[in-house]
């Protein structure tokens, strides 16, 4: 799995999420899994998949002669990068300030 952060858009993250949930998937299996979360057409899913392959976040494999796609970035690496990006954008890169803010917001009554 990749250890360096790769910029992944929100839409691309839906493709990765399907692969994290189900592991390597055939093209048909991937489309079906993504459609459980998003009403996208085949072309949209294939475009996002192509972007992820160019970013080296997903790769095609041959599994017993069948084409499958596999995530090359693990979920934890992705989450770490997303949390750090949020901290960078809103809290001058300080994770402790982000965590403190989340803690305070959970203490407030709705």
From TrEMBL:
GO terms for molecular function: DNA binding. Gene3D superfamilies: Winged helix-like DNA-binding domain superfamily/Winged helix DNA-binding domain. Keywords: DNA-binding, Transcription, Transcription regulation. One of its GO terms (biological process) is negative regulation of DNA-templated transcription. Coiled coil: none annotated. InterPro entries: BlaI_family, WH-like_DNA-bd_sf, WH_DNA-bd_sf. Pfam families: Penicillinase_R. Belongs to the BlaI transcriptional regulatory family. This is Putative transcriptional regulator. It comes from Brevundimonas variabilis.
């Amino acid at each position: 799995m990749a250890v360096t952060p790769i910029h992944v858009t929100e839409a691309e993250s839906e493709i990765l999420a399907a692969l994290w949930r189900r592991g390597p998937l055939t093209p048909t299996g991937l489309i079906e899994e993504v459609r459980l979360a998003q009403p996208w057409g085949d072309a949209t899913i294939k475009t996002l998949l192509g972007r992820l392959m160019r970013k080296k976040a997903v790769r095609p494999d041959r599994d017993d002669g069948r084409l499958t796609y596999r995530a090359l970035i693990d979920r934890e690496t992705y989450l770490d990068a997303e949390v750090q990006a949020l901290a960078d954008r809103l809290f001058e890169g300080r994770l402790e300030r982000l965590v403190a803010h989340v803690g305070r917001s959970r203490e407030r009554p709705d």
